[in-house]
Design goal:
GO cellular component, one term: cullin-RING ubiquitin ligase complex
Number of domains: 6
Protein name: Cullin family-domain-containing protein
Number of strands: 15
Family: Belongs to the cullin family.
Radius of gyration: 56 Å
Distance between the termini: 138 Å
Strand content: 5-15%
InterPro entries: Cullin, Cullin-like_AB, Cullin_CS, Cullin_homology, Cullin_homology_sf, Cullin_N, Cullin_neddylation_domain, Cullin_repeat-like_dom_sf
Structural class: alpha+beta
Organism: Sphaerosporella brunnea
Strand order of the largest sheet: 2-1-5-6
Largest sheet: 4 strands, mixed
Amino acid sequence: MPALAANSRKRKPSPSLTQESQPSNSSSSSLSAYQQSTITDHFSPARSQSPSSTSSVHSKRSRMNPPASKSVTAKKGTPVVTEATMMDFDTGEPTDTPYIVPPPLIYRPKPPRPPSKGFLLRQAGARMLDVKNLRESRKGCSEKYFDMIWKTLEPALEAILAREKIVGSMEEMYRGVENIYRFGKAQELAELLTKRLDDYVSTQMKPKVMQEIKDDDIETLRIIGFAWRQWSEQLGLVRLIFLYLDRAYLFHRQSIEDFGIAVFNEHILDTADVSKKVLNGILTLFKQDRQSDGKTSVDHDLLISSMRMISSIGLYYTKFEPLFIETAREYYARLAGRESQVLDLTAYIKECVAQIEKASAKCGEFNLEYSTKRELILVVDAEMIGNYVALLTDKERLRVLLSREDTETLQTLYRLLDRICDPGKALKEGWEAYIVDQGTYIVQDKDRGSEMVQRLLDLRGTLNAIWTGPLKKNETLGFSLRESFSVFINSRKEASIKENPKPAEMIAKYVDQLLRNGIKNIPPVAGVIHTATDDDSALAHRLDLVLDLFRFVQGKDVFEAFYKKDLARRLLLGRSASDDAEQLMLSKLKNECGACFTNNLEAMFKDMNLSRESVASFNSTKVGSEYFRKVELHVNILSQAAWPSYPETPVTIPSAHAQHLEAFAKFYTSKHQGRKLTWRHALSHCVLVADFENGRRELSLSAFQAVVLLAFNEVPGVGTLRYRDLKTATGLSDPELKRTLQSLACGKMRVLLKSPKGRDVFGTDKFQVNAGFTAQQYRVKINQIQLKETKEEIKETHERVEMDRKYETQAAIVRIMKSRRTIKHVELIQQTIEQTKERGNLDVTSIKQNIEKLIEKDYMERGEGDTYLYVA
């Protein structure tokens, strides 16, 4: 019966067009029986079956790969399928299920169908054939083919293991392995292969390796490494031939590579503690590399190849990594203990950074796994940083870094601490101690009290630059910075004035200096980057820095008293550098302390504006205009409640000027009924026009200086006046007259000449006008010694602040008692402190004293226990 050949890749026959072929006789008798065998000969149970003519439907793979041997045809146009054509199977993606080549397909004529009824009645036409797949046994054929292929593979395998040249085509061997797999003989082939590999390692490789192994661990590592490299090469060649078996049959089983590693471990590494010596050799090489520090050569190639070996054979994670981390821990513990004792903080920090960088570099150099690198870096951090946090944050060592402003080392220290803990908490204690010590030293320095604010600004600027830079704006350290400033600035609790000035007082004086002289002559603040483009913006920025210090001051009433006093002088003497700057400072104080704090200050500016309006109104009158043509008069009318109190200093004003003042007073009282003007000449100033031999000059003087110089107008020519004559003419007291004469006759601009010469003024001295006085400027300012603040005036200011604080405290106590009626002692103290905290820091002792005074004045009385009762 003619046979019909189908595509071998299909499980079921394709319904493609079939073609009948004529039977054919055998081909030329010169061909061997092997060459004349057909598909039917290989796969039919009986080889004696007569050859049949076939019609071949070739696959794409068949067309691409022509048969290795010549095709034989029985008759012209009728191809004979040879063994070479039959063995050219498709090499598609292998699967675990062995592929079974279907037997030849035959066809049989189907019996005629009975005629169907209905509209589906079968019409007459071509006859239909049913093609069925008849499976026939091919066991005998596959066994012979397997034996034939193995005879080809075995010599090649032996040549590979003997490291000799392979005889034959590796591609044909690969095809043979593939065909064996397709015949379902993969298991037998895998068993033969694994048995041969196991026998080679156990009987040939192992004795040679064991014979060469010595007691030296590094030499043992070198021998095992060489053996492994050879074995790896051999496994690679074996796998090339048996690749189809490895990918298809062994895909979900132990691969050839895994089997080779297993037998190498079993017969070599697990024998006589070889693996232990290998690991010890690797660890010894790492130890030598650490200790050499790059000065002596270490066999890097051996170390790198050894790491590859233990990674391949599976010893890396199970045995090597734990031992490596443990030895590294011991090494870095010894290193940290030694270096911490001989190095200073800066050098030890650099050593920590160097060891971290070296550890990371070595991991990359020797191809260590990422998990090992991570664990190694953690070991370095723990041993060199974590165990020495106390050393790294030592107060004295940290003080050295901060005092030197070593920002690079501080930044490195912060990063090191950030690797193992919260750097803010670790550095907080030493950071606070340095700030408090430095600030306390500045505040309590009696010799440099005038530089207190500038030094505090420099300290604040430097610390802020360190905090924003190396310390990464750590919140904990930022809070400690503010708290530390608050501690040392308010550490001097002085109820009354002593020899040293307080921070609140000096801050007020520093602001006065800024507002009088501007920013040009003020030194810059350390650590602050200047971005201002003009003087006004630079002054505003400096005021912001000063207000930053002012926020830490608890005694704001002291600041207010001195600021108000200095503001009065600037307004009355016209010494403000900028009216805009004055208003800017006032608005900043209002935002910081509230409207109540600046009420009196705003009233002072209001008085100055009203005064200018009153003087202009007076000069517009007939009387005022007549006086104005002779003397320009400017009067500042001050409300007593808003301005500081000034003592009434007796002085005799020349009659012409006295009449002018009386005319203005009469005009003002006529406009404002019920008001009374009291003249305070201590802060008055004027400009006199004087004619000297070298020309006319304008002299800017105080009222007392002007009165003294006008007294010489009553003396003809360049006359001389004695000290007692000037005292009679001016009516000034001795201290005031001596300071005035000293400024006129003993300063740089000597308008008067004193006889005898000297720096001090005595009651027997004589004075005359310096007719030869000269100066480059037309208007000359004479230093006014009496304007300098004396210790007595400072003491009076502090005493006035203390008195105001007592009154405020008593008022707060009365308000609390009036609202509560009955209150316990502790609650009264706490609420009093709470209500007066904006004005200053009160002592409990001072509050108790004020409670006793109120009890004496019958505002309150004691109740049972520790309670107080309000008396209506």
